[in-house]
Design brief:
Number of strands: 12
Shape: elongated
Number of helices: 14
Strand content: 15-25%
Structural class: alpha+beta
Oligomer: single chain
Largest sheet: 9 strands, antiparallel
Distance between the termini: 53 Å
Length: 587
């Protein structure tokens, strides 16, 4: 249903044919007299147009506007090479503390660079949301030349040319329009035409007309407020915030993976050290038994046991070396050194001490859960999704409202050209009078506000049934309820993950304590076996076995220390504190 109300003030000075002869000098004199009255409206209109143009200088025109618009898009992508790698090369080795390693990871890791790019699309969407308020300028010009048979041969100026009617029609228009976030839209237009023909009965030939118009439309119910019209922009901004939280959550995981690879190298190198000692011990034992066999002190059958121990040690050492090589390759991948042909095979030396003090590390599970709920970016992203849903509900509700708009407009027109009055039309007869004129006459009348047209209208669109808008609102409510459940689920999962991480930290600390006790006992047992062997009450094989057990216990301590490190790392990841704890600032 539409309600239309229009008030119109018609042209106050209608055009009319000349009813009495007058001179060209008289016409020019009147035109000069109107100059002062016309100047003020012209200046006012120029000021309005200049103000509108200045308001758009942030986007158009710019000196490089056309170059940016028409220049061919460059599709080639340039990827930055790894940086800062040579800063940590010392004596032919890449020495990396944990801090330096994480610095290289943040600068060079490809996965992290891709993660940062995930913010570009939401950021661009914010700029795109402003597009509904971008102004538009439209210009058009056409030229139409028509030749057609004349219905009356007398309509042609020269009968010798044949009974044809010729005309040239050239309209021009320029329109500037823009929508504002207040629910207001306006349009400014200027137009003109030039029409010439060989019809002797036409008063103006050529006929030149000009027109200008200004219209403003304001929404009164739907889309009436600035808040409602900025909902798409606020949604884009809120989506960008959620993307930032998702970025931090992803970074937490990538930093966790990177640091875990660092400690795997530490653990793998310790395993190589242990296996090397075990192999050396087995070799020493085999050499000792071989000497006894050469002296005839043992049976030839006794040589097979130490030979088997040495073969097993060689296998374990080989496997440990291959595991270390794989761990170092993974470490190189994390810092992007595998992309540099000159440095990809350089030896790596990790310098971070693995020992960690656990004194006073008494974790309160509930306190850690509260920190996680407050700081975990995944929880924050779920909360931000509810804000986006609220905006969607308000936008859907706005779509249910009737659409009532008010429009006010003004239009002015002018007429110019060469005016010819037919002698038959004059009161006393006589010859035709030709009065020269042109575009200046049409513009003078238009800017002089001599022929105004005013209009005001109300337009009401009342949706009798709006099933689409109703379902949009229903879907928005379902989306918010879904995201509310997602938030609850995220909080539950965060709580479970934090409790598991706290339990793992406490278990790792206890395992480290027991591993140190075992290492101390194995050390004492080795010292006892050495002393008994010195006194001649024990065999060398028992000394070798005691040494191997002690080395394994030392390795267990290092493994337990690495386990404590990685357990704390996982706890920081779950609570969302990892980036701050490692001094990583995301800008």
């Amino acid at each position: 249903m539409k309600l239309f109300l229009s008030t119109r003030a018609l042209v106050t000075r209608p055009f009319s044919l000349v009813t009495r002869p007058f001179s060209l000098a008289t016409r020019r004199s009147k035109s000069r007299d109107r100059g002062g009255a016309v100047l003020f409206p012209i200046l006012c209109l120029a000021l309005v147009l200049a103000t509108t143009a200045v308001a758009q200088t942030t986007s158009f025109p710019k000196p490089n506007y056309f170059r940016q618009v028409f220049e061919q898009t460059r599709t080639q992508v340039d990827l930055r090479d790894p940086v800062k790698l040579k800063d940590f090369v010392v004596e032919g080795k890449l020495e990396l503390s944990l801090k330096n390693f994480l610095e290289l990871v943040m600068d060079n890791n490809t996965d992290i660079q891709v993660t940062f790019l995930s913010l570009e699309v939401p950021r661009n969407n914010i700029t795109s949301a402003y597009g509904v308020w971008d102004p538009n300028a439209t210009a058009s010009f056409s030229s139409t030349r028509t030749t057609s048979p004349a219905t009356n041969p007398s309509q042609s100026e020269n009968a010798s040319l044949g009974s044809t009617s010729k005309s040239l029609y050239q309209p021009f228009s320029l329109t500037y329009s823009q929508a504002l976030d207040t629910g207001t839209s306006y349009q400014v237009g200027f137009g003109g035409t030039k029409d010439s023909f060989n019809n002797s009965y036409s008063s103006y030939n050529p006929s030149i007309t000009s027109s200008m118009s200004f219209a403003v439309t304001q929404n009164l119910i739907r889309n009436r407020s600035r808040y409602v019209n900025r909902i798409p922009l606020m949604t884009a901004q809120s989506t960008y915030k959620r993307a930032e939280f998702s970025l931090r959550a992803t970074l937490l995981n990538w930093v966790n993976v990177a640091e875990s690879s660092y400690w795997r190298v530490v653990s793998a190198r310790e395993n190589v050290r242990v296996q090397q000692i075990a192999r050396d011990t087995s070799k020493s034992n085999l050499d000792f038994v071989q000497k006894q066999l050469d002296l005839g002190a043992v049976s030839p059958l006794d040589i097979y046991n130490p030979q088997g121990q040495l073969a097993a040690s060689d296998l374990a050492l080989s496997q440990a070396k291959f595991a270390l090589e794989q761990a170092e390759d993974a470490l190189r991948h994390q810092i992007g050194i595998d992309l540099d042909p000159d440095l990809r095979r350089i030896p790596i030396e990790v310098t971070e001490p693995v020992d960690i003090s656990t004194v006073g590390m008494d974790l309160d599970p509930e306190h850690e859960v509260q920190k996680a709920v407050a700081n975990n970016p995944s929880v924050k992203a779920a909360i931000q999704a509810l804000d986006i849903d609220d905006l969607g509900i308000q936008s859907a509700h706005n779509g249910l409202l009737p659409n009532l708009s008010f429009t006010a407009s003004y239009a002015g027109a002018g007429q110019g050209g060469i005016y010819t009055s037919s002698g038959a039309a004059l009161l006393g007869g006589g010859p035709a009078v030709v009065i020269p004129g042109g575009l200046s006459d049409a513009l003078s009348q238009m800017f002089g506000l001599n022929n105004p047209t005013y209009m005001g209208s109300l337009t009401l669109t009342l949706p009798i049934r709006s099933r689409t808008a109703s379902m949009n609102l229903a879907n928005a409510l379902v989306a918010k309820k879904t995201d509310a459940y997602n938030l609850r689920n995220q909080e539950q999962n965060t709580r479970l993950n934090v409790l598991t991480a706290v339990s793992n930290v406490n278990g790792a600390i206890d395992s480290l304590r027991l591993a140190k006790i075992q290492e101390d006992l194995q050390h004492k047992n080795y010292d006892a076996e050495v002393e008994k062997y010195t006194l001649g009450t024990d065999t060398n094989q028992n000394v070798v076995i005691a040494l191997q057990n002690w080395v394994v216990a030392q390795s267990a301590v290092v493994s337990a220390q690495v386990n404590v490190r990685t357990s704390i790392l996982n706890l920081y990841t779950q609570t969302g504190e990892l980036l701050e704890e490692r001094g990583i600032v995301v800008k």
